[in-house]
Write the structure tokens for this entry.
Amino acid sequence: MGNDKELMGKLVSLCKRRGFIFQSSEIYGGIGGFWDYGPLGVELKRNIKDTWWRDMVTGHDDTLVAPGAPACYAMVGLDTSIIVHPQVWKVSGHYDLFHDMLVDCRTCKARFRADHLETSECPRKPSVHPGGHTECDLTAPREFNLMFKTHVGALYDPASTAYLRPETAQGIFINFRNVLDTTRVKLPFGIAQIGKSFRNEITPRNYTFRSREFEQMEIEFFCHPDQSEGWYAYWRERRFAWYTSLGLQSEKLRLRDHDPHELSHYSRGTADIEYAYPFLPEGEFGELEGVAHRGDFDLRSHMEGKLVRQGDRLAVETDEEGKPRYPGSGKDFRYFDDQTRERYIPCVVEPSAGADRTTLAFLCEAYTEDAIPDSQGRLESRVVLRLHPRLAPVKAAVLPLVRREGMPEVAQDIYRKLKRHWHVFYDERGSIGRRYRRQDESGTPFCLTVDGQTLSDDTVTVRHRDTALQERVAVADLIAYIEVALEGG
Ligand code: GAP
């Protein structure tokens, strides 16, 4: 587990070769911390986001108590703007607190995150120092805010400064009242959002793991404070199980509770879901998702103003005149329970996942090298992406064995019928063995081959990606066959 640089190198090269992930702006030398998803990558990432949305939001049954849940709950979605009123970030704490400690080299101008330096010495190998010097001359650590700045409107002055959101969560909090007022949801319920976030990371690294532009899949779950511990426990387990259900092996995945000193000033508990990515040192895990008990911090801040910790409680931060330093909206975010006649600010449990880190974990997990028998029974090595069928970019490839005897026409007819349901691929060029191998590398679960027998009995060969075993299935049954396989995984 972990520390498999060779595997990582092979995966990165496959992702480029097959069109999963490209370096952004590659033709101009690239730009650090930005990535493009190619034709297969966009399908994989979209399937991950769609599966998350389906499993967490639209497929959620709010009339039943889910296993492990304290009660029934509803889920709704939102899609909020990337740029919001700058006061949002002042009140949320991001304006003052969302920073990393930065260390510069006075000689070569290289920048490092202070927490990435184990000693006060330069972590680079002497051979990679620009300018040929051998030891960096490091400054003392200083604060560096991670939010990207921009300007709204024609004037370029402090009053027009705005920020690209560093998380999608705040868009949900500021719409809490809108959702309550426009839907029939009652507490407990969750609001989900998928969207881009931006952080000007000092040292983007490890492929797409730490990027400057990335996508988040976040849920803000609102509940009664007395039930919040039960909901926190529920979401920790629920989210962990989601990854294992889609094929991440449990020994490479772990749920790690934060030590008290790691907790944010508002958090009453946080657990990270972590994966042993191959680029990490042996035994180390990287965060895929954080599940946080945020108390009433966010709703209360947007109501009253930016909060700070005072002893064991949170209070509105004030200026010299005793006024809120960053005032809230004044909007009443309290929830009124018409059964109990109680009015209160709900607590929030937040499962916050990264779509890019999730995509990367599924790719790392899926990459396999094995050997299968060729047409003469000799073992042939291959690379295969064993992606869960729900996530696979292409669900099936339709392949006429040869480009004559009417096989392409029959295959194209099947292709058109399947295309109405899924992303399928048609390929008639090259030897059948090479076409299979290509689909194995793309993670396609099924290859459907039209051969001589198809013309007489209307069946095709279904070749299974993981085992390379083949069976015959009637053309009329193909849609039902693939449907069952996609559900079952
Ligand atoms: N709203 C809470 C929040 O944003 P976070 O732990 O800072 O919490 C949540 O981010 C998730 O977003 C992380 O678990 C990770 O998957 C993803 N993420 C954060 N920073 C990232 C980056 N620079 N590149 C890629 N993904 C990132």
The chain has three domains: 40-98+148-361, 99-145, 394-488. The chain has a mean pLDDT of 93. The pocket of glycyl-adenosine-5'-phosphate is lined by residues 167, 169, 199, 201, 210-211, 214, 216, 218, 287-290, 350, 352-354, 356-357 (CB under 6 Å).
